[in-house]
Design a protein that fits this description.
The complex is a heterodimer of chains A (271) and B (270). Chain A is mostly helical. Chain A has one domain. Chain A contains 13 helices and no strands. The longest helix of chain A has 28 residues, at 29-56. Chain A is globular, with a radius of gyration of 19 Å. The mean pLDDT of chain A is 92. With 270 residues, chain B is mostly helical. Chain B has 11 helices and no strands. Chain B has helices at residues 4-20, 23-50, 59-75, 83-93, 96-101, 106-136, 145-171, 180-193, 205-211, 221-228, 234-264. The model of chain B has no long low-confidence stretch (mean pLDDT 92). The chains are: A mainly alpha (271), B mainly alpha (270). Chains A and B meet through helix 2 and helix 10 of A and helix 2 and helix 8 of B.
């Protein structure tokens, strides 16, 4: 795992497999464009919804529309990037049922790389773009300093890693029950929806849960408070605002451990 | 009972049983609906805290609306899917040719199957999240037998409108072979214009007036307004009329398009 040369080889395998799927999808070019534009619109609707909410109020949980755009965009870009690269793991239950996973196990490329690169869909880039646009608009209202710019970059990287961990960790449930893929959605897409809003709209017990037990608040909430120059409405100390990378590393390690356990105890469906 | 009626009942029963097989998926779905219900409730409570009578609702109304929305998602297959998705698959594989040979109308066959599916989803993914919502939040319930009856009429009408739209969409597979793009756009439209993301009462100006009479308003806004007592008396009748009108128009369009499609059916590779 720690060997950089092996990592580079795995990344290379990932790129090769996904390039294959991109070429395959491009064979139906009109359909690809329609799906890409559709993906852009469907995620864009979320933000139109927020914009309509702001037609009825001046602030949501004490945050302005531009500040919410920064939060929404930060979480959205992280989610969309993780979804683009590892989101396919959601289908692992289907791969198990179809016996595809067994085929993958005998190939000389790590299983996780194959599962994530399988049917790689470049059209999901539309979601990255949509969220980036909203984030960009939110950014124009930030009072920038070099450290805030750096923190924003770190936030996106850490947020992506956190969603990456959630996708992998919760998809592993399907090693045990192949037909409950939807539970993972509550944590991945649910986590994204949660962090699209200022956490100040939630009761303090919920925020405590999202900090200590299911630490999704580190995707964007804590670093954003620093970048936007806001005091923490719940009175958590300032250093929590720099903690996202630590949380991300811990969650990724945990997710990989769960993955390894899942694969170890996996028994083929026998069909 | 041995008429054509019993056949449709038989189809519906089989569909009900088919969906009830996947217990794991059902429990997972109920969990996910409940999580999203909690998130939306808190966000909208914050909106109503800042503007206590937005859209003519109070906080209890909007929280109830959120949970009714979660209950409707699978009951009317708001995102898409259900029996018409089976039809789309059969059009692509060519199996639809068999459907045309059956001594039963295709529209009636698939509608009966979708009703059976919907009945199962109402009892599982409709009722259970509503109970969860009722335990966690203060909800408003229909205020009397008339309101219950009006809601009981509004619910199947919502299903009919949604079925007709999904059926029309499935039939596009007769003309375009890859319907993924159209399906995606249709579910985006359904999510937004049904008021699942944001209640339609919050939509401003002429745009708000428009979205409240589009077919998708039948999905959630009208049944919810009937349930909440926002629509009572003639206003409730007008709401049910809107749903019935769209159901008639769209089912008529389904029947018409089906006749055109029947004439151009070519079994692929056959």
């Amino acid at each position: 795992m720690a060997d950089p040369r092996a990592l580079a080889r795995h990344a290379r395998a990932y790129v090769d497999i996904s390039a294959l799927w991109v070429r395959a999808a491009m064979a139906y070019r009109a359909s690809w464009w329609m799906l890409t534009i559709g993906g852009f619109l469907i995620t864009g609707i979320d933000f139109v919804g927020i914009w309509i909410l702001f037609h009825n109020v001046d602030a949501l949980g004490g945050f302005t529309l531009q500040e919410v755009a920064f939060l929404y965009g930060g979480s959205g870009v992280a989610m969309a990037l993780a979804d683009l690269f590892v989101g396919r793991i959601e289908r692992i239950g289907q791969m198990i049922r179809l016996g595809k996973l067994d085929q993958m196990m005998v190939r000389p490329v790590p299983l996780l790389v194959q599962v994530c690169a399988d049917e790689f869909a470049l059209r999901r880039i539309a979601r990255v773009l949509q969220a980036a646009l909203v984030l960009g608009w939110g950014c124009t209202y930030v009072d920038w300093t070099p450290s805030r710019a750096l923190l924003t970059g770190v936030m996106i990287a850490a947020g992506t890693a956190i969603f990456f961990a959630l996708f992998i960790g919760f998809a592993c449930i399907q090693f045990w029950t192949t037909d409950s893929a939807e539970v993972a959605n509550a944590f991945t897409y649910g986590g994204n929806t949660l962090t699209s809003y200022p956490l100040s709209v939630f009761p303090s017990e919920v925020v405590k849960g999202l900090t200590f037990f299911f630490p999704i608040a580190f995707v964007n909430w804590y670093p954003s408070l620093q970048v936007l120059g806001r005091d923490d409405p719940f009175g958590y100390p300032d250093w929590t605002q720099y903690l996202s990378p630590v949380v991300a590393v811990a969650l990724v390690a945990l997710a990989l451990l769960v993955w390894r356990t899942g694969v170890r105890q996996y028994r083929s469906t026998g069909s | 009972m041995n008429g054509p009626g019993s056949l449709y009942v038989a189809i519906a029963t089989r569909a009900f049983r088919r969906y009830s097989t996947y217990t794991g998926a059902t429990v997972a779905g109920i969990f996910t609906n409940s999580v999203f219900g909690v998130i939306s409730s808190f966000v909208l409570i914050a909106v109503w805290r800042a503007n206590p009578d937005a859209g003519g609702y109070d906080t209890t109304d909007v929280v109830t609306y959120v949970w009714l929305g979660q209950a409707m998602i699978m009951t009317i297959a708001l995102w898409g899917g259900g029996a018409p998705a089976d039809l789309a698959a059969r059009i692509k594989s060519g199996d639809v040719a068999l459907d045309f040979y059956r001594p039963v109308g295709i529209l009636g066959w698939y509608l009966a199957a979708d009703v059976g599916r919907s009945a199962f989803h109402l009892l599982s993914r409709g009722l259970v999240p509503t109970l969860v919502g009722g335990l966690l939040f203060d909800l408003r319930y229909p205020s009397g037998p008339w309101v219950w009856m009006a809601f009981a009429a509004s619910l199947p009408l919502a299903l009919l409108v949604s079925f007709a739209i999904r059926f029309l969409l499935a039939m596009t597979a007769f003309w375009i072979l890859d319907d993924q793009g159209a399906t995606l756009l249709a579910s985006a439209a359904a999510v937004f214009f049904s008021g699942l993301t944001v209640p339609l009462v919050l939509f401003p100006g002429w745009f708000g007036d428009l979205v409240r009479v589009l077919p998708w308003a039948s999905y959630l806004q009208v049944p919810a307004d009937v349930w909440l007592g926002q629509r009572s008396g003639w206003s409730a009748v007008a709401g049910l009329g809107l749903q019935a009108g769209w159901a008639a128009i769209l089912l008529g369009a389904c029947a018409l398009l089906l006749r055109v499609a029947e004439r151009r059916v070519v079994v692929q590779g056959g």
